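Long-time lurker. I teach an intro course on protein structure, and each term I like to show students one example going from raw sequence to a predicted 3D structure in token notation. This year I'd like something fresh instead of my usual example. Would anyone be willing to generate the tokens for the chain below so I can use it in lecture? Attribution to the forum is fine with me.
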Amino acid sequence: MGEADIIPFPARTEVSGEQQRLRRALADLQTALAEQKRALDEWRFAMTELGIGVSGLGMALGSYQESLGSVETKLGDLRAEAKSLEAWADGVLAQEQR
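-- Reply from a regular --
Happy to contribute to a lecture. Here you go:
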């Protein structure tokens, strides 16, 4: 066998000041992006909850409107009955005065 060539591992070179600043800026940017993603996720969740609340409110208002319609119908019936009773009472009073 012949002689072996030994290849040295590359030695680490000193990172320059500009490279360090660039790495820190990149790390800060990644942190800011992660925080913005979290904030956007929280905003989306809040919008979903708001949508659910508004939908529930719409259903409640629809039910209230139906109830008001029912009350209006009952009041109309009572008004008709009151007019009928008034006409009957007027008739009785008219007969008594004769």
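Some talking points for your students: The mean pLDDT is 91. The two ends are 148 Å apart (CA to CA).
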